[in-house]
Amino acid sequence: MNSMTALLLWVLLAWFGAEQPAVRFHHVHYRVGDPSAAMSHVAAKVDGPRVLLPGLGVGVRAGDQFLLFDRLDPSDQAQIAQPNLADAYRVAVAWFAGHGVVVSPNELAGSRVSFGLVNERYDHLAFITGNLSAFRDQIARAGATPVRSTEDAFVFNAGGGVFVEVVRDTDRADAFWCPMHPDVRSADRGTCHLCGMELVAIPPPKIGEYELDVRQLRNGNAPGLSGLRLSISEPDSSELVKRFVTVHDRLLHLFIVGRDLEYFEHVHPEVAGDGSFVLTHAIPPGEYMVIADFLPAGGTTQMVQRALIVPGPSRIRTSAAPSPDVRLALVTQDLVAGKYACLTFTVTDAKTGAAVTDLEPYLGAPAHILIVRADLTDAIHVHLEELATGGPTISFHPLIPAPGDYKAWVQVQRGGKVSTVPFVLRAER
Question: What is the value of pTM for the model shown?
Fold first, then answer.
């Protein structure tokens, strides 16, 4: 019986309510040391969005199947004897058949989840059924007893180190997403597992880029600027956008980066009466790129860049931020164009060298990082994905757009003081 025949049989049995229950493969559930890194790796591997499945967990969609992830408990045995996924799936199919249950598909070959994660522990294989009551009755008649059960799910030991879960079919179209992480989606309301924001309704797509107008504010004949006025317009009209969603405690995050990558400021303009934003902040003469990060109501997160040239003698080339009271050591993985990199920083006290464990939330996140290409053509604003950490280890997983040199600024807060630490990165092809 090929997979198409098995799927048709599953649909017919579910539709007509036949006694013999049918299940369809739904996901493989992993327990890993770093769920965020695993999801980033898998999302790039299968070219699928990250999702939140209510009652099941978080993971990545691969067609009509999923890879879900939980954190591995340190008390669990990290190294256990497990068959590979294809063999585990054959064990599951045989177990279901032995208990009078039809499985679709009858093998895992060709599935986008079948590549597996090397050296990672999967917890169980999960299947869905359109008639959980019929399945429960059939499995009870066959004498099988679940090792875990809830109102909507049963977990069985299929033998050979393989556990199978059967859940009620709740597959529905994605209707909500995270405004900061649009690839985190769900059929129901909830919160983003990456940043903790409330999921919002997915808006209809808008074609085109939001327009950003930047006007210079001066203080008489003094050199440099006293600030900026910024206006944001709809992509399909010149109408001023007046409604924005608060993201990480602010309506608009503005980054000012010097052309030589020495100057850096992360500031937050205030809304004016006409709906524009006004920044009161001294900017010395020089060449800059201003990067506006905002979320218009009914839209998606925007990162819009504009060049800024401030006339006058270029005397001040670095920002006035105080010296950081922390040091950061960086270890990189997969710093390759087109992949989600893993940037892991270890935070220590600048004076004592002791590990820092008392980081405070800064703008709604334990840490922020801005990464720009050396030619200022790309910018990436990423937040720490571990919401409750105080250090000393923090990790970011940015998608690297192209090979080449980058400058990054990491921002953390400790004792009420924000520290900004720069790094130079090089992404390979």
Answer: 0.67
